Amino acid sequence: MPESTPKTMGQQFGRRSWAEPWKIKMVEPLAVTTREQRQKALEEAGYNTFLLRSEDVYIDLLTDSGTSAMSDRQWAGLMLGDEAYAGSRNFYRLEAAIQNIYGYKYIVPTHQGRGAEHLISQAVIKKGQIVPGNMYFTTTRLHQELAGGIFQDVIIDEAHDPANLHPFKGNVDLDKVQSIIDKYGAENIAYISVAGTVNMAGGQPISMANIKALRALCDKYGIKIYLDATRMMENAFFIQQREEGYADKTIAQIVKEFCSYTDAAWMSAKKDNLVNIGGWLAVNDWDLFEELRNLVVVYEGLHTYGGLAGRDMEAMAIGIEESVDDQHIRSRVGQVLYLGELLLSWGIPIVQPIGGHAIFLDAKAFYPHLKQVEFPAQTLAAELYLDSGIRSMERGIVSAGRDPKTGDHYYPKLELTRLTIPRRVYTQAHMDVVAEAVKAVYDARETTRGLKMVYEPKYLRFFQARFVRL
Ligand SMILES: *Cc1c(COP(=O)(O)O)cnc(C)c1O
């Protein structure tokens, strides 16, 4: 621990302190466990934090997906659910909110993000087509591959270097896109898959200048750009903070402009949109909309509910409006920055610049003595839980899976453990506890042993794989 007197958040960053633009109305008690209890729970869970029971977890930073606290307005909205099978009032509310905030024309609700990914992948990808993307996301790439697509990474090289300070590490490398066009021909590219903040690169944003330039390139060849809008609000915040000409624009204005350079979007509303379940597709092309509406009734539900209750759609519509509020997004990303700055001030290796939804610990730098097949990031997640009951997630070789052609592991350059901050859930004191736990695990790094995988599921193995201590 640093010896100096504790500094307020404002002093730490050389500005006046500010606090969350909400207060707490209801609390949910947390379990505090002993190290012995955690050791037992971890062994039962096969050293996989996904297999822990949430009751055994103190501070849950597994994911920011579906873990947001809803506002009193959203809870009130649940009471306004119109549970009609067809034409629910809440669908039209949701449709209007998406059209208004994101600017797309036609909306299809889905039960969550991967439902949307499934439909759009099946609708547009022809077998053997290339799907260039600014790094991959697990479920996104899998749905693209299941539809016959071949993913190709077109993110800038800086994204693969956890120490590189590029302000927009989510940017697409236009030369990489051009060489894919030259090699395969524009007709063999299904679309460009762009994520607004790149989860797997550490929550890194893509700049407005980059999406504009990508639009110009794609227009030359008639290629569509589809946006994974899951964390687009956070991306907009970074554009506002870092990109010239956007400091005086609102988050709402930035989101609208960014989306205008894309042809369609899919959404995991469990993230930015502040709900516990939900997703959507939004497109500008009528023919594509028709196809998606045909598919949604097969896989999700009628096109005016897509696997959701009316009340869920109402909560989502309200969440979308709240998520674009400048004060909300500043405090959401501000909390992530607070935790990250604290860790950096103690010399702990994390991905920089600090991203919008999570801190990514650089597990390779924690454990240089472990081989990648000894799962350094999975090991770090296990150690954190053991120390303090904090649940994090592996984002390294386990998440990357195997190459379907060779059967070998993918060996990603980044071997990260993610501390994901749920929206509006934890306080600054929780962040302090987390930082101190990371420090304790870091201090014990040299004597930490790795893991061996003893059970491996076929798909998305990180969810259910089991390990033993080496
Ligand atoms: C979570 C997520 C998805 C998938 O959404 P689900 O709601 O979990 O099905 C897709 N893309 C990104 C970037 C995500 O973070």
How would you describe the overall organization of this protein?
It is a single chain. With 470 residues, the protein is α/β, with parallel strands linked by helices. It has two domains: 9-60 and 326-469, Aspartate Aminotransferase, domain 1; 72-323, Aspartate Aminotransferase, domain 2. Helices cover 40% and strands 12% of the residues. It is built from 17 helices and 14 strands. The protein has helices at 9-12, 35-44, 72-78, 89-101, 113-124, 138-146, 174-184, 208-221, 232-242, 251-260, 286-299, 310-323, 326-345, 363-366, 376-388, 397-400, 428-443; strands at residues 59-60, 106-110, 130-133, 150-153, 192-195, 225-228, 264-268, 279-283, 358-362, 390-391, 393-395, 416-420, 451-455, 466-469. The longest helix has 20 residues, at 326-345. The model has no long low-confidence stretch (mean pLDDT 95). It binds pyridoxal-5'-phosphate.
Would you kindly provide a brief summary of this structure?
With 470 residues, this protein is of the alpha/beta class.
What percent of residues are in strands? 5-15%
Q: Oligomer, anyone?
A: single chain
What is the CATH domain class of the largest domain? Alpha Beta
Tally of alpha and pi helices? 17
Task: Record the strand order, biggest sheet.
Answer: 2-8-7-6-5
